[in-house]
Amino acid sequence: MLESLITSKTRLRLLVKFFVNSKTHSHLRGLADEFGESTNAIRKELNNLTQAGILERHTDKNKIEYQANIQHPFFKNIQDIIRKYLGLDKLLEQILERMGEVHQVVLVGDIAEGIDSGKIDVLVSGESLNSEYISHLTTRVEDLIDRKVVFTLLGERITTSGLVLFDKEAGV
């Protein structure tokens, strides 16, 4: 659905890259390699998004790095749209609905780095988690968001780096 509003596939991939996780940063050559596209196509979109103030550029030695401009007035709106496009809102809703006493939900792997590979790795921590519900939930969520989902249930707090979608203690 978002593809009908944002007709440039490169622009959409860049928005996913930088707005799923606002800490993500990258440079032109790295993006070209990751996307398998020419540097010219990516440079054009990076320039457009930078001129609009949606992305920021920083010079790091001899490379120019890009990342989301979290000060932009539409930052949160764009991030919400991208997360909805990926189905992360539905994913979180389904987990919190019937998984038990959930303390944290953290995305790891490709999606935490802003790469929409079609697979989402999810770590869920909490007490008395409903492990029987997980197989039903996996199928249900995969149908809802049209992506493969791999759940890992943990009893202790998650300390690994990743994208925190929910943290009961931190109020996220």
Automatic annotation (TrEMBL):
Tell me which Pfam families the record gives.
HTH_DeoR
The record's listing under InterPro entries reads: DeoR_HTH (IPR001034), WH-like_DNA-bd_sf (IPR036388), WH_DNA-bd_sf (IPR036390)
Q: Which GO terms describe its molecular function?
A: DNA-binding transcription factor activity
Which keywords are on file for this protein?
Transcription, Transcription regulation
Domain of life of the organism in this record?
Bacteria
The UniProt record lists the HTH deoR-type domain at 20-58
Question: What name does this protein carry?
Answer: Putative transcriptional regulator
The scientific name of the source species is Algoriphagus iocasae
